[in-house]
Amino acid sequence: MPASGGIATKPKYSFLDDYSEGAHPDLLRALVASNDTQEAGYGRDTYSQDARELIRQQVGCPEAGVFFVPSGTSANAISIASCLRPHEAVIAASSGHIVTRETGAIEAGGHKIISVVPQNGKLTPASITKAIDDNWHFPHMAKPRLVYISNATEVGTIYTKAELTALKQLCEMNGLLLFIDGARMGAAMTSKKNDMTLNDVLQLSDIFWIGGTKNGALLGEAVVVKDPKHAEDFEFFVKQQGSLLAKGRIMGTQFTELFREGLFFNLARTANEAALALSSAILQGGYELLAETETNQVFAILPLELANFLQQSFNFYIWEKFDQDRVVVRLLTTWATQPAQLEKFSRIVVTWGTAAAEV
Prior knowledge:
Layout: E1 13-14, H1 25-34, H2 46-59, E2 65-69, H3 72-83, E3 88-93, H4 97-100, H5 105-108, E4 113-116, H6 125-134, E5 143-150, H7 161-173, E6 177-181, H8 185-189, H9 198-203, E7 207-211, E8 221-225, H10 228-232, H11 234-240, H12 249-260, H13 263-284, E9 288-289, E10 297-303, H14 304-310, E11 314-315, E12 317-321, E13 326-332, H15 339-358
Helix pairs in contact: 1-12, 2-12, 13-15
């Protein structure tokens, strides 16, 4: 019996996010194995140095600066602050994480966000051009200087190489920097629709980061700064924002394990495959997807009654109301999503859809 004296309830399986589990066992073993060694602090440890070299090999740039920070919000806030002067602004999709989910962290750092409407979660050259054209009255308006995108996007879609090339070319023509939020970079790189490598991402951006938290790590993101001159002072921004951890070895050890033999990509691929299984069941049940499932995020349009029934056994977000009788739900899968839970969810959706069709 619970301490309150109430009736115990069976815990629900979670599709709320992709960081509900702890860390992949290989990372935990690496942390335990390294635990008794003495190491330098603040990212000067041997594990962080090894991780930097492995990431530099992956991105194909020996001169790139690689910096470990504990969270996605810190990665975004620190990266943007390092790029901009006080009067300069960020162009971002209105659905972007820095707009909707970071409590005004960018604005708190003194930088305006210019929001534009995305297409399928993505920015386009036309939307960026409009933002530039609408913010011209200097010095009375903040000056656009950086374009923020995420790959994968907030609706799980990814940028193709052609799309990213077009954005980069437009940015260069207009003196803008291109920054990529890579919280789900692993999912993007292992998507069946992906046609890029991490070297392509490096070449087609100015600064980006690789997410560990949402791909098997306890915590940690790796910010990659292409320009060595920009990288020289980046660590000062990390320190000022309280993100230069004394025990930086915790992140270095994990990223070394993630990139040593391809585990980073294997975990992301597993999460993507689980999401495809969910979306397949949703379509089999006769329901629609808000966006095609390209990574580990599934956005499905379901009857409200079905969504409520599913929530008796599963946790997930009802993202928004679609119409009078239907809602959009968001389902997130991970490297550790249990096949039995996928089957249970799928069975309910398919049989519910079949019963509805018979009626």
